[in-house]
Design a protein that fits this description.
The chain is mainly α and 147 residues long. Helices cover 80% and strands 0% of the residues. The longest helix is centred in the middle third of the chain and has 66 residues. The protein is rod-shaped. The termini are far apart. The model has no long low-confidence stretch (mean pLDDT 80).
C-alpha cells in the first residue's frame, strides 16, 4: 500500500492553519498515530553504535577462535612429540636393561667382588712392605729369615 503525502497547509480541529514545519510535524504525528514507527536520529546513532560494537565483537571472537585453534594444534604437536619421546625413552631403557643383563651374565659379579677384595688386601700388604723398606726394617727382617 502506497501512502500519499500532502504538503498543503493543514488545518487544525478548530480551523487554525499550520505552517509547513507544523504541518510536517502533524503529518508525522498522524503517521505515528496510525501505527507507523519512525526512528529518530538518536535511535539511528544507537543502532550504528550497536552495529559497530557487534562488528568489533565479531572480529574479537574470530581472533579468539583462531588463537584457540592454534593452541589446539600446538597441544596436538606437543602430545605427539611427548609420545615419541616417551617411546624412545622406553626403548632406550629396555636396551640398557638388556645390556646390563648381558654384562652380568658374562661377568660374574660375585667373583668380581671377591677379586676386588683380594686386590685391596694385596695393595695394603705391598704398601706395608714399601714402608718397611723405606725405614730399613725390611733388610733386617730378610737377614733374620736367612739365619
Amino acid at each position: 500500500m502506497q501512502m500519499k503525502v500532502d504538503l498543503k497547509p493543514l488545518k487544525g480541529e478548530r480551523g487554525e492553519r499550520f505552517d509547513r514545519t507544523d504541518g510536517a510535524k502533524a503529518m508525522v504525528n498522524m503517521v505515528n498515530a496510525e501505527g507507523f514507527d519512525f526512528i529518530n536520529k538518536d535511535q539511528l546513532r544507537e543502532e550504528a553504535l550497536v552495529l559497530k560494537a557487534n562488528a568489533k565483537l565479531d572480529v574479537m571472537i574470530n581472533v579468539i577462535v583462531e588463537k584457540r585453534d592454534e593452541m589446539i594444534r600446538f597441544e596436538k604437536e606437543i602430545t605427539e612429540q611427548t609420545k615419541k619421546i616417551g617411546s624412545s625413552i622406553r626403548n632406550q631403557a629396555e636396551r640398557l636393561a638388556q645390556s646390563f643383563a648381558k654384562f652380568e651374565k658374562e661377568v660374574n659379579l660375585d667373583q668380581l667382588a671377591q677379586r676386588a677384595n683380594d686386590l685391596e688386601r694385596i695393595a695394603c700388604a705391598l704398601e706395608s712392605i714399601a714402608n718397611l723398606h723405606t725405614s730399613g726394617k725390611l733388610e733386617n727382617i730378610g737377614n733374620m729369615l736367612k739365619k
